[in-house]
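Q: Given only this backbone (275 positions), what sequence would you predict?
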């Protein structure tokens, strides 16, 4: 079932509105009954009057997340609401990719459903995108993770070590690849979502690495951060799984690079024949 929140303009044809959207906002949601109603209200408040849509992707929730979206729709009849409900849990990456493939905007963003990164950060990314110099804007809370009191030293060291390893392997212009707020050019993201393979924790990294490989211009933007729940513990098993996933992403990118190079050579050969 499709579950998207679209802004309406009086007298506008729904098909025209879909094609002319400036922004699609993806909200991956898993067991977010407690907050999704508030999240939709906040997003509508920030983007009121803009040409936008919000895609709520229910990632196999076991609670009333979808019911809360429907309740929000009944309480806000001036806004059209649809829900994209995945039959089984695919992970945050799978939910974001499903939302991207269903999106229509010239720009596509995603933000966490609990708004631990407040929605005004998303508005800021969107405003920066209007300057037209970047293809990808990635939120970063790296400076907050290191400077915030109460964050265990071990977690800080793991965060810095992971960031350094990512830089060593992928040479990205983004240091914090994992913060849950990003904005992409929609046409590129829809193609990338169909090609990407990672559904788990490192799906952000895969998308950024693909964008870098394709020569997209990226900008890292510091964002505010208000934790809404206790952070998950990072154990040795999770660290080992991340290292394995990094190796898989690196191998997939190498294969993708060879494929792109082959396609480029093929196009050039046709151009030579035509000449």
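A: Predicted residues:
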């Amino acid at each position: 079932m499709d579950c998207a929140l679209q802004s309406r303009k009086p007298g506008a044809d729904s098909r025209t509105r879909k094609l002319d959207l400036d922004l699609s906002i993806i909200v991956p949601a898993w067991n977010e009954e407690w907050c999704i109603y508030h999240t939709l209200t906040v997003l509508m408040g920030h983007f009121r009057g803009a040409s936008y849509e919000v895609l709520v992707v229910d990632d196999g929730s076991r609670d009333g997340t979808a019911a809360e979206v429907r309740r929000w729709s009944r309480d806000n009849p001036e806004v059209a609401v649809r829900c994209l409900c995945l039959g089984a849990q695919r992970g945050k990456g799978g939910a974001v990719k499903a939302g991207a493939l269903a999106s229509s905007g010239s720009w596509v963003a995603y933000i966490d459903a609990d708004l631990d990164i407040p929605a005004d950060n998303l508005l800021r990314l969107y405003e920066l995108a209007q300057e037209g110099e970047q293809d990808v804007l990635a939120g970063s809370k790296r400076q907050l993770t290191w400077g915030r009191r109460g964050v265990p030293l071990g977690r800080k060291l793991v965060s810095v070590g992971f960031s350094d390893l990512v830089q060593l392997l992928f040479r990205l212009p983004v240091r914090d690849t994992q913060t849950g707020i990003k904005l992409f050019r929609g046409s590129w993201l829809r193609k990338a979502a169909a090609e990407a393979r990672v559904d788990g924790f490192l799906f952000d990294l895969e998308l950024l690495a693909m964008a870098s490989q394709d020569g997209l211009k990226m900008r890292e933007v510091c964002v505010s951060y208000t934790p809404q729940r206790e952070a998950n513990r990072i154990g040795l098993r999770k660290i080992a799984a991340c290292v394995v996933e990094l190796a898989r992403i690196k191998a997939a990118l190498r294969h993708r690079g060879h494929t792109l190079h082959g396609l480029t050579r093929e196009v050039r050969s046709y151009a030579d024949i035509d000449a």
